[in-house]
Amino acid sequence: MDEGSPTYRDQFAIPTFKSLGITHSDFADDDLSIYFCGNSLGLMPQATPKAIEEELKAWHARAVEAHFNHPNDNHWVDIDLPLLPLTAPLVGAKENEVAVMGSLTANLNALLVSFYKPKGSKTKILFEKHAFPSDYYAFLNLVKIYGYDESHLIQIAPKEGDTYLKTKDIIAAIEHHKDALALVCFPGIQYYTGQWFDIATITKAGHDAGAVVGWDLAHAVGNVPLELHAWNVDFAVWCNYKYLNSGPGAMAGIFVHENHTKENSSESFPPRLAGWWGNNASDRFKMLEKFDPIQSALSYRQSNPSVLDVVAVKTSYQLVAAAGGVTTLRQKSLALTQHLWDLLVQSPYYNATSSPWFKILTPEDPAERGAQLSVLFGPHSDDPAHDTMEQVFQYLHDHAIICDERRPNVIRLAPTPLYNTFREVEIVVQRVNEALDAIARKHS
């Protein structure tokens, strides 16, 4: 494969065998790991420590004064506002439709409180059966707050024999339940299978059914091109610590279509979980007992932002912008993931009739997936202690290949275009085959 594709790997801190605490006779301490886990936590940009250190220096030198009198004119009172022009292109939004704030599930809960409006027979929430647990917990507790029970949650799962949800089945479910639906909410990319949902088509179907449509973009933002404004999405939430490399538990983001905010005023606005940082900025420090929401997604902010978080997010966003944005990165991502797919299906263990074996859960069509392939390993023994996936995962880790497992039998592999290479893809598949060879020999 062409290794001439642009890479920014020298701008990231890549763990070594030594830093990971891995000792292997075939490798030196300073040999680099292969990091295929950006779908869980992205690598640290080399520029991030300096950006954080600058704000620590400001805190040290000026303390509270840095809110309005910052040594580098990076005044803390508005420190998140320069993020807006960097955020909007990541999700295909206008600047007045995005905000960097809070954390993923806290933001989801905050927007659900505002956008879930049960009325009459339309009280139910439609989502996928295997949604990330946080989303399920949020939906369940939301309907219970309104006095409903779990019967007001409609979950749809892949049909028997399918490994992922088909768009036509989602549309059919929306149509079937349209008289009961208040809200439709799906992930942009399914965390377990790596499926990229057809956001535009599903959003339109939800609106045609008279429902509000929201999206959890945790695995989609920074991974695939998004056009939330054009697709008329009502709201969306995401985290910034996966493909956007902003650090563990980093500050998250929201999208609220301008249709829901541009006419807001102190006299007329949709109620929400609110705080002083969402109020009219010119009146913020007057401490008035009057909520006058900013006429943008910023009105959903509740508290002043964490300065250290903001600069970490900004550093990573700037790196993505310098790389040409998500649309440019997507071209390399498509090639990387396709190379991974092609090599995996060439393995003698792919869909084999004998043990050990594996198959890929992720859609084959590149337009229906992001950077992640989810590999399901079949058992080779009736003894759970001889689990194929666990042994393959351990073998990969022993060779400093960092990916993640989803028990009982899935390994997720996510080559990330900012810092992974085609040669790394080849090595990963080689190691998978070596691990399966060892298992086959052991139990032949």
TrEMBL record:
One of its GO terms (biological process) is 'de novo' NAD+ biosynthetic process from L-tryptophan. Its EC number is 3.7.1.3. Pyridoxal 5'-phosphate binds at residues 104-105, 132-135, 216, 219, 241, 276, 304. It catalyses: 3-hydroxy-L-kynurenine + H2O = 3-hydroxyanthranilate + L-alanine + H(+); L-kynurenine + H2O = anthranilate + L-alanine + H(+). Pathway: Amino-acid degradation; L-kynurenine degradation; L-alanine and anthranilate from L-kynurenine: step 1/1; Cofactor biosynthesis; NAD(+) biosynthesis; quinolinate from L-kynurenine: step 2/3. Keywords: Cytoplasm, Hydrolase, Pyridine nucleotide biosynthesis, Pyridoxal phosphate. Pfam families: KYNU_C. The keyword Zinc does not apply. The modification N6-(pyridoxal phosphate)lysine is found at residue 242. It is found in: Cytoplasm. The keyword Electron transport does not apply. One of its GO terms (cellular component) is cytoplasm. Its main location: cytoplasm. Its cofactor is pyridoxal 5'-phosphate. Catalyzes the cleavage of L-kynurenine (L-Kyn) and L-3-hydroxykynurenine (L-3OHKyn) into anthranilic acid (AA) and 3-hydroxyanthranilic acid (3-OHAA), respectively. NCBIfam families: kynureninase (TIGR01814). HAMAP family: Kynureninase. This is Kynureninase. It comes from Diutina rugosa (Yeast). The gene is BNA5.
